[in-house]
Amino acid sequence: MIKVCALSDLDDRKPFAADVDGTDVVLVRNGERVHALADLCSHAAVSLSEGEVSRKGIECWLHGSCFDLETGKPSSLPATEPVDVYAVDIRDGDVFVDVTVTTN
To answer: What predicted TM-score, i.e. pTM, was given to this entire model?
Structure first.
């Protein structure tokens, strides 16, 4: 696990782009939980961290595909393939991500 940021650095339901050991990751805080997904839309290969978070998940700004924060699965077209979801641990107010472990 690699320390990415402090939990206080994350605004609730606002995407946060990070480089985790050479992997582009988007973090999304939802209350006291943090989700980490690959920061690359599986449909158009653009950064998900530039999109918005809705009740459905994180939405790609280019074509509107939405990805579930828990599973990485698309809930709307045009994307049909999921994005990777990474293991997250919050310790002593810091957010750690392991990009070698996908949870989907």
So the answer is: 0.94
